[in-house]
Design goal:
By secondary structure, the protein is an alpha/beta fold. The protein is 29% helix and 28% strand.
């Protein structure tokens, strides 16, 4: 089943995130107070709506109870960010991500319920979309135009099997460069050690092959 994600705030980051999610097959609700911006997003997401994000009632009318994730991408408006995070959690949204302009703002948003804080200088909408649309990806880093580095959990069907048995390079065109378990990240990889559910893999692959492990 496709995830349903709301993006609040359609600045550069919010627009990039919303369109990348939608292009990945996610149902996206894009929200901003600016009617003109909302109009430009119509057709690029599942649904675009104009709402005053400093008004709790206006936010509740968006139907957040159906959302898997809400991303508060407002950034510079602390009041709107705080109210958006609080209402999203009150409405039962299981995972709320909030963009913060600085560390102090991040601390405040974390205290009032945000599950994850992101900072514009460290994140891009495309990177965040890659993580949100996969049940396996923990982190996504673009290396260049073609290659990316991914920190990921093993797919369910990989658990209990060894890297030698999985033949990931042949089947998925990915190269495992490090393995992390309960102890540490190791660049020495034992190909005959079975993967566990909490194992983390650091892999490099071509962006065009992402669909194979998404």
């Amino acid at each position: 089943m496709s995830k349903t994600i709301a993006v609040f705030g359609l600045g550069r980051f919010g627009r990039s995130l919303a369109t990348s999610l939608y292009d990945s097959g996610v149902d996206v609700l894009a929200v901003d107070k600016d009617h003109d911006i909302v109009e430009t997003m119509s057709g690029k997401v599942t649904y675009a709506a104009s709402a005053d994000l400093t008004n709790p009632n206006a936010i509740k009318e968006l139907g957040l109870g159906e959302m898997d994730v809400v991303v508060v991408a407002i950034g510079s408006d602390l009041k709107a960010s705080i109210i958006s995070v609080m209402v999203a959690k009150e409405e039962g949204v299981p995972y709320v991500i909030a963009k913060a302009a600085d560390e102090r703002m991040g601390e405040i948003l974390k205290k009032i319920g945000a599950d994850k804080i992101i900072f514009p200088e460290e994140e891009t909408g495309v990177r965040t979309a890659k993580i949100l649309t996969s049940s396996s990806f923990l982190e996504f880093f673009s290396i260049d135009e073609n290659l990316c580095l991914i920190e990921m959990k093993p797919k369910a069907e990989w658990v209990g099997m060894t890297l030698r048995e999985l033949e990931l390079r042949n089947k998925y065109k990915i190269n495992v460069v490090a393995v992390k378990d309960a102890s540490e990240m190791r660049s020495f990889i034992d190909p005959d050690r079975p993967l566990e559910e909490d194992t983390e893999l650091l892999v490099i692959l071509d962006k065009k092959d992402l669909g194979g492990i998404n």
